[in-house]
């Protein structure tokens, strides 16, 4: 499994994480009077964007591999699109399953994010098919699998911890809400650093070949 596996794994983790975040919201009965206080919907949306960012970096790694490597093994193309599509199916399944209890205003955002990730995985696979040539596997495989798993875990961690934080906001007062939001955004940043770091290492490995 060469560099393109990072595209698929990052998209898989992000799509599932976004599905978890959507499922953690609830149908609001009223809007807060203080617009500076994030609602559960707002925190979920912010966390979705963090997940999406990790996946986009994974897509960049895949595109860079296609443009610089030239020879892409056929199985690697499948690893770019397959996990991304599987993640989209799971993420959309969570949206459909929780549509009666989750915030309906987040449906368009969640669906666009999730479907977009599947499309990006497919686009990278198509680029590898059109622009690349059948050739041997990338000489460095192990690190890309590990780095892809780091991206996957980072996105899932944002989704899982973010979902718990969003659920805890439903009955929290204003002071507690601000503390929950601050802690979760800090967590998102730490997990994002892990995902960004994995992508930077992958880029260096590709360019250093």
Number of discrete helical segments: 6
Distance between the termini: 16 Å
Which structural class do you get from the secondary structure elements?
mainly alpha
Q: What's the overall average pLDDT, rounded?
A: 87
Number of strands: 0
Instruction: Give the biggest beta sheet.
Output: none
- Percentage of residues in DSSP E strands: under 5%
Sequence stretches where pLDDT stays below 50 over 5 or more residues: none
User: What number of domains?
Assistant: 1
Q: What Rg is obtained from the alpha carbons, in whole angstroms?
A: 18 Å
Share in helix: over 70%
Order of helices and strands: HHHHHH
Q: Characterize the overall form.
A: elongated
Task: Throw out a few tags for this protein.
single chain, 209 residues, mainly alpha, 6 helices
Provide a descriptive summary of the structure in words.
The protein has 209 residues and is an all-alpha fold. The chain has one domain (4-24, 38-207). The protein is built from six helices and no strands. Helix 1 (4-23) packs antiparallel against helix 2, helix 1 runs antiparallel to helix 4 and helix 2 packs antiparallel against helix 5 (142-169). The protein is elongated. The model has no long low-confidence stretch (mean pLDDT 87).
